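Moderator note: this is an archived Q&A kept for reference. The question asked for a predicted structure of one protein chain; the sequence and the answer are reproduced below.
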Amino acid sequence: MRAIFLMLYAIFLSLTLAPFGSRANNNFDVISSVEKYVFKNGKPYVLSKVYEVMAPPSGFLPYYIYSDENTYAYPFVFNREGIKGINEPYSRCNLAYAINEMVFIPERKFNSGYAEDFEQCLGFDGDVKTLKNSKGIEWFVTKAVYEVDSDKPNSTYEVYFYLKGFFCFSKNDSHLISVNEGDILILKDKGVTEKDFMECSKNI
């Protein structure tokens, strides 16, 4: 019975994590880019848990990447604990975007006044929603899951956008989408201003 379980779990992991290169035209490596992002300041501790993901027998890595067959956007959760000089005892969530043989990951500050700056991110609920609007902006909406004081997971919408080589997290639009219960269509004619480029991409 245990052998059957391990076989099924191995199949699950292969479907979840393995095909990143093929979905990204085999020209770049999302996993490698996420690793570089996570380890750029040192090696953090492994994750203790990930939302709705059973821990593998060997435990989690310091990061976990969610995948979707129909998009080039990859949500991931990563640990910040254990890095010398980093006063962020939380796991964090972010989004990697693969386009034009490059991988972009926003440089989220986690000190911008955004409510979830001081809560542990456990992962994501559901797929990434995408919309290219009338202004030529590609919008991405994720549903991130945070662990609040009550120990009951709380989900909130987080918004990213891609425009002219910049891939950014948008605190203001995250609030807008959350107020409108995840309705991405309210972004169909929305533009961005200079203030929206505060937490943006660096090609890894």
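Archived answer notes: Confidence is low (pLDDT under 50) at residues 1-28.
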